[in-house]
Amino acid sequence: MSKVIDFRTNPSQYKHWRVDYEGSVARLTMDVDEQGGLFEGYELKLNSYDLGVDIELADIVQRMRFEHPEIGAVVMQSGKEKVFCAGANIKMLGGAEHAHKVNFCKFTNETRNTYEAASADSGQHYIAAVKGACAGGGYELALACDQIYMTDDGSTSVSLPEVPLLAVLPGTGGLTRVTDKRKVRRDRADVFCSFEEGVKGRRAQEWKLVDAVVANSKFDDFVTEKALEIGGQAKAGFDKSGIALTPLDRTIHDDGSLSYSVVEVEVDRIGGLATVTLSGPDQEVPSSIEQLHRLGAEAWCLRLAQELDDAILHLRFNELELGVITFKSVGDIAAVAAHDNFLIENQDQDWLAKEIQLYWKRVLKRIDMTSRSLVGLIENGSCFAGFLAEILFAVDRTYMMAGEFEDDNRPEAKLMLTASNFGTFPMGNDLSRLETRFLGEPEFVDELHGSIAEELDADSAEELGLVTFAFDDVDWEDEVRIFLEERASFSPDAMTGMEANLRFAGPETMETRIFGRLTAWQNWIFQRPNAVGEAGALQRYGTGKRGEFDRRRV
């Protein structure tokens, strides 16, 4: 197996970022170690980044939520002279396998979406303080911030030069955020995205590419004043302490399977299958908010989210040929519902209860965006309730055991809805998964409210439209086996395309456009000879030769 990419990190291991906290303001400084690339063969010059840089950023954003809830403003800035960020490293992209490039873009998109949503979700507002060249993915880092302030020093500029220079697209939301978020006029956006040199000064502000342009002598004071104002307003009167996100304990076995405290991942490489088993609560429901805070990262509902998140990322990047992921659960369904209800009851009074729910929202979106066939198996003894039941509505199909099974003394298979299934964890289309499931029959969602807290058996779940199929003891094993074998035999490309189309019914949002439209086109362009062929622009960048293009359009 090639090098295992590990998404677990902590501040003591950072190579590329540093964070300074003062009151309600954090300063997040990007100072990339040129020799600190995740792989060999390239240097991360000019604050360019690879996956390793973004793994650290994702960890910082996560820790900001849990360890520093007092922070109301985060200033993203450069630690290097004359450059904010040069974007994704070109040599890294040129040498990476196609799958890595696509997964890299997806992960960086998810990271940017996470801190972009932090203002509305957690009252943490990100501010980009741009000094020096801010190009490509560097400008995309800034675009995901709430405010972009740029110094007027005669050389600082913003640009999206990917199309003219590399024959690829800005891969982490740049095109979409320019038009949909910053509302740049379409013809000006066309000029901007075709102009290698970028836009400076007052024109950048006039075209809405930045929010303010400030004289260089006043810039640092301006940014500090704005950050103090925004941070103070966002966290006025907030005096709570955060919790420490302790390291995840994970074991990778010789066969590639994974073990955490409450998550197991079984790997079947011959069958192209990964089975993710989630264990129900291994502790009582917290008796109070104070106990939840004492438990901190050891609280079952938070620990499970962290471990599942890590497992999904591991499968995405390190197990590319496992085309089918099945989700199972084991435990007391009533206990899961009790933990879920504890969070629901305290979400408006306690920041930590709310953050745990927000983390589950992000993990579930990560599942939505995973390019594998996803299957839910509701077996006897399972515990799919509340946020765990949400997984059943994220997958492509769900199979449920019906009735008694011979020589099986586990409790009969049930699933349970809670209030959290009705809007607490919206998809990228801003609908709940139940609303998306019953897009043409919204009255079904209304009727489902009457089933909250009921332990639904297979007949009831099937009648309510909550599972795809229910099979008894005679048919279960054969039906599931035949389906999994069939699924694994289909073209992975066709499956990826079909699933991505079917999962995101309903209205378009900026998020669905970034993932559905932009990522799909980038995926295609990353395979075209105009970009990645021997004479393609991405391969020839830096050689002094321009790319040679097949001029036909399709």
Strand order of the largest sheet: 13-14-15-16-17-18-20-22
Shape: globular
Query: pLDDT average, as an integer?
Result: 95
Q: How many strands appear in the DSSP assignment?
A: 22
Structural class from helices and strands?
alpha/beta
First CA to last CA: what distance? 37 Å
Assembly context of the chains? single chain
**Main beta-sheet annotation:** 8 strands, mixed
Radius of gyration: 24 Å
Number of helices: 23
**Helix content, binned percent:** 40-55%
The fraction of residues in strands falls at 15-25%
Uncertain spans:
none
Record the SSE blueprint.
Layout: E1 17-22, E2 25-30, E3 48-49, H1 51-67, E4 73-78, E5 83-85, E6 87-88, H2 90-95, H3 98-116, H4 118-122, E7 125-130, E8 133-135, H5 137-143, E9 147-152, E10 157-159, H6 162-166, H7 174-181, H8 186-192, E11 199-200, H9 201-206, E12 212-215, H10 216-234, E13 251-252, E14 258-259, E15 263-268, E16 273-279, H11 289-295, H12 300-318, E17 324-330, H13 333-346, H14 351-368, E18 373-378, E19 384-385, H15 389-394, E20 397-401, E21 415-416, H16 433-437, H17 442-448, H18 458-463, E22 469-471, H19 476-489, H20 492-503, H21 510-525, H22 529-532, H23 537-540
Parallel strand pairs: 2-4, 3-6, 4-7, 5-8, 7-9, 8-10, 9-12, 16-17, 17-18, 18-20, 19-21, 20-22
Antiparallel strand pairs: 1-2, 10-11, 13-14, 14-15, 15-16
Helix pairs in contact: 1-3, 3-21, 5-7, 7-21, 12-14, 13-14
